[in-house]
Structure formats: structure tokens, C-alpha cells
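TA notes, week 10

Several of you asked for a full example with nothing omitted. So below is the full record: C-alpha cells for the whole chain, then the designed sequence directly under it. When grading your own attempts, check the secondary structure regions first.
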């Protein structure tokens, strides 16, 4: 029997071709339907359902609700019509009661892409990369696509061409502006509209931290939270790093990157089987990471974005693993540079090398006693987290202003 195999790239192309044909047929049938209906009514009546939604937010996963909720709240406060589209059936946004903001589940996978590719909107805001690269295609009935980041970013950490086809990018700080312009020049593509608007997710986390009660006295706790992929801690050290931590006096919380549960499920399952929950160790998969960031004392990670959350919001120290970063699949490969986080880490904590595993307990104690990381945090904040506390207003007002510019609305 001959087995047929279609590689992912070819599959994506075939899907895009199918979607193009399907979308054209749907549009053609819709036009015919309304023309027939128009003539049956003697040329009277409107075409219901063809009006554009002024503003749409698209989220590909429920974990980004903490990025979009402040923006939805701002539109609700202003009494402006906005729709929040999510690909997660259990997105927390679906349970929130609004008047002018509508939260909708549009379906997962291909079903969701069909809805996205037929979207009719003035402004579409999203944190999802890959617009017009894979299945998500620009709709001819959307005037303006806007990208924001769901964490502090330098903008070149996405897979190739992640934000090339957006009309605008609202960055978290000046570093992202520098690299977006660099990629545009290198690729000879049109310049996007850029504005520094900060990070809603980190702003809200800072508010929660300031309002939270101080944790009661407890045992010192280590948070192990690596990124996913072959450059991450688990790919480099495997279960050996967990074994080494179990030899220390500290409580351990392990929080894998959400993408690991999709792309590295077999590896994570194996680690959990070998190191199950106990009095000394707990695995955490909460949608919201605020609790574990609050109740831990030190983070062990790599170049994961959680490093910024932990150090820039909570002012806590980090130990970063000596892992080899492969830039090949990412936009940063074009620049010939390492991710900014790798250089920033030197001012945020201490590096963990292979030979340090045996004495990791002493290394943790050394870092916990060191208070000389404030300058490094301030330097990183200036580059990747600007206009702190004002991001939701800035992002929302940009959307409102751009919509009025495009449509001429008052």
C-alpha cells in the first residue's frame, strides 16, 4: 500500500488555495443571493449582514485575554462597539458581561481561519504573528491590521515574516522599533506604522502586584519556567535539572511553556512521570501565571519572555541557563544578532552552566543574597517596557483615531 505524505509547507499552500477558492465561491453566491432578493422585492431593501464591524480583536488562545481585557474594558467605558473573537472555547472573555463589547468564539483550527479570512472590519487588532504567511489571510474587507505584543519584546523573536504584512505595530518599547525598521530595510518591504504604546499585560500585572497582600512567611521557592523548543532548558538538560533541584532545600514549582504542551507533549509527559507532584515539587499549568510569580523567590529559565515578567514587574532575581540558541527559524536570523534578552540577562541574574548543576543549591543562595541587579532591570525596562501604566489607553486611542482617519467618522 502506498502512503501519501504532504509536508507542512505544501499542506499550508494547498489549504490557502482551497480557502481562496472557497472564499471566492461564498462571496459570489452571496452577491447573487442579494441581487435576486433585491429584484424580488422590486429594488427595495438593504443588504443585511454586510456592514463592517468598526473594531475587532482576534486572540488565538485564551492565555492572551490578560493582554486584551484592558482594551475591551476601555472600549466598554467609552461605549464603543467592539468584537472580541477568540479561538478558545473556554476563553475567560466569553464569561465577561459587557454592553457594547461582544465576545465570540469563532472556532478552532480551519473553522476559525475561515471566519478570519472573511472578516469585515475597520480595524483588526491581534497579537498573533503570521498574517498572510500561513492559513490566516488578509481579508479585502478589513481596512487596517494592527499587531501588538503579549509581552515585552524586541519584535524579532517570531518565526520568519511574523509581522511583515500588518499595517501597523504598536510596540512595547524603542528596541522593537529599531528592529522592525531594520527588517523592513533588509527585506525591501513597505514601512509599517509604528507607535510605542507599552504592554497591557505587564501594566495589569504591576497593578495586581501593588494591590496584592504580602505573602506570609514560607519556605523559599524556586520557579523553573523554560521556553519551548530545542534551545530551551528541558531540551538541553532534560530531567537532570529537576533531579539537581530536588537535592536542594527549596520547594520547586515547574511551569512549562504553554507551547510545550502542544509541540513537546511526549517530553513533558515523560518528565512528569519521572518527577510527579509531591511535597517538594509541583507542576503548574494555570492560564494565569500571576500566583506562581508572586509566591516564588527566584526564577530559573532561559530566554523565555517570563524573565521580563519576573524581573521587571516583580523585581526578583533570575538564573538563566547556558543554552545554545538556534536563530535559524526566527526573524532575528536576518540581523545576525542574538536576542536582546540574552544580553539583558547578564544584568538581571547569573548564568547556569552544565558544571553548576551539582552545586545549584549554592548558586541559588548566592543569587538570593545579591541585591545588585536593579541597574540591569532599569536598563531593560527602558528598552522593552515604556510608558508603563498607560498602554490600554494608548492602544485603544490609536485604534479609534485610525478608524476615524480611514472612514472619516466623527
Amino acid at each position: 500500500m502506498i502512503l501519501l505524505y504532504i509536508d507542512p509547507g505544501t499542506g499550508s499552500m494547498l489549504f490557502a488555495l482551497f480557502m481562496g477558492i472557497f472564499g471566492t465561491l461564498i462571496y459570489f453566491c452571496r452577491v447573487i443571493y442579494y441581487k435576486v432578493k433585491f429584484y424580488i422585492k422590486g429594488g427595495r431593501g438593504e443588504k443585511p449582514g454586510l456592514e463592517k464591524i468598526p473594531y475587532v480583536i482576534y486572540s488565538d488562545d485564551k492565555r492572551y485575554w490578560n493582554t486584551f481585557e484592558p482594551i475591551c474594558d476601555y472600549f466598554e467605558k467609552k461605549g464603543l462597539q467592539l468584537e472580541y473573537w477568540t479561538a478558545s472555547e473556554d476563553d475567560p472573555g466569553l464569561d465577561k458581561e459587557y454592553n457594547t463589547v461582544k465576545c465570540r468564539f469563532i472556532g478552532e483550527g480551519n473553522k476559525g481561519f475561515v471566519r478570519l479570512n472573511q472578516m469585515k472590519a475597520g480595524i483588526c487588532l491581534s497579537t498573533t504573528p503570521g498574517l498572510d504567511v500561513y492559513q490566516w489571510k488578509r481579508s479585502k474587507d478589513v481596512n487596517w491590521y494592527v499587531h501588538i505584543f503579549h509581552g515585552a519584546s524586541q519584535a524579532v523573536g517570531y518565526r520568519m515574516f511574523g509581522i511583515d504584512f500588518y499595517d501597523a505595530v504598536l510596540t512595547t518599547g524603542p528596541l522593537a522599533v529599531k528592529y522592525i525598521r531594520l527588517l523592513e530595510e533588509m527585506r525591501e518591504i513597505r514601512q509599517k506604522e509604528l507607535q510605542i504604546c507599552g504592554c497591557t499585560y505587564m501594566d495589569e500585572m504591576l497593578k495586581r502586584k501593588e494591590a496584592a497582600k504580602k505573602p506570609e512567611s514560607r519556605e523559599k521557592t524556586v520557579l523553573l519556567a523554560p521556553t519551548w523548543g530545542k534551545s530551551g532548558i528541558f531540551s538541553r538538560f532534560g530531567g537532570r535539572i529537576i533531579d539537581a533541584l530536588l537535592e536542594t532545600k527549596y520547594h520547586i514549582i515547574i511551569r512549562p511553556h504553554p507551547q510545550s504542551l502542544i509541540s513537546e507533549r511526549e517530553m513533558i509527559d515523560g518528565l512528569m512521570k519521572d518527577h510527579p507532584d509531591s511535597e517538594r515539587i509541583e507542576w503548574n499549568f494555570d492560564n494565569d501565571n500571576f500566583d506562581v510569580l508572586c509566591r516564588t523567590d527566584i526564577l530559573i529559565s532561559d530566554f523565555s519572555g517570563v524573565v521580563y515578567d519576573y524581573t521587571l514587574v516583580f523585581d526578583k532575581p533570575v538564573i538563566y541557563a547556558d543554552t545554545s540558541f538556534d536563530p535559524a527559524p526566527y526573524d532575528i536570523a536576518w540581523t545576525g544578532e542574538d536576542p536582546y534578552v540574552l544580553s539583558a540577562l547578564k544584568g538581571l541574574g547569573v548564568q547556569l552552566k552544565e558544571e553548576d548543576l551539582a552545586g545549584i543549591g549554592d548558586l541559588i543562595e548566592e543569587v538570593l543574597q545579591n541585591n545588585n541587579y536593579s541597574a540591569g532591570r532599569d536598563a531593560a525596562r527602558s528598552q522593552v517596557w515604556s510608558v508603563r501604566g498607560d498602554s490600554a489607553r494608548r492602544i485603544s486611542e490609536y485604534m479609534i483615531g485610525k478608524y476615524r482617519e480611514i472612514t472619516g467618522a466623527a
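The longest helix spans residues 8-40. Use that as a sanity check on your answer.
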